[in-house]
Amino acid sequence: MSRAMRTLLTERLRLVPVTPHNAAVLWQMLRQPGLREFQDLPEVDLVQFGRMVASRPQRLEPGAWGRFEWLIGFEGIGEPVGWGSLRVGERVSSSAEIGYSIVQSYRGRGIATEAVCALAAEAFSRLHLRKLRAYCVPENAASRTVLARAGFEEDGVLPHGATVGGHPVDVLGYVLNREAWELRRPA
What we know:
The chain is of the alpha+beta class. A hairpin with a 7-residue loop joins strand 3 and strand 4. It has a domain at 8-135: Aminopeptidase (3-Layer(aba) Sandwich), CATH 3.40.630.30. The protein is built from 5 helices and 8 strands, in the order E-E-H-H-E-E-E-H-E-H-E-E-H. The protein has helices at 23-29, 46-54, 111-127, 141-149, 178-184; strands at residues 8-9, 13-17, 66-74, 82-88, 95-102, 131-136, 153-164, 167-177. The model has no long low-confidence stretch (mean pLDDT 90). Strands 1-2-3-4-5-6-8-7 form an 8-stranded mixed β-sheet, with helices on both faces. It is globular.
């Protein structure tokens, strides 16, 4: 059975794996206003970004490690409205970090929460993870709400855990354990 990354479908969303063929779409999205407010994004050109995407793993299976990304499409909209990612560490493949961002004009519609829930389901069911982690700056109230709605619990402050605007900032850690996810998922 192939364990290639697959397109994820929810009630309103279509999450399409980022590949070398559609990497330019994500690269363009990374340049939209408002996306760097709470996170630093890579300062690379399109060719470099394409190489980065091409070097990522293509198979999402237990024991796989690296960065896996999806473009988030919203019902009836031709262009993606955001992206989500799972980053599995090489040394600890029993947990992963989830990330996401929605372009400014589509925020506040529950898209991020729906996408995070879809990515969590994919991570727990295909990778058999024990936990998912997420991080956000304390000032990002919208992201904190997304994580709470998706079942994540606050897990403390990580001093200088990220860089925003070229400066180190503290971040809030969040965790979703497999057991908590299993209790929340629909039967």
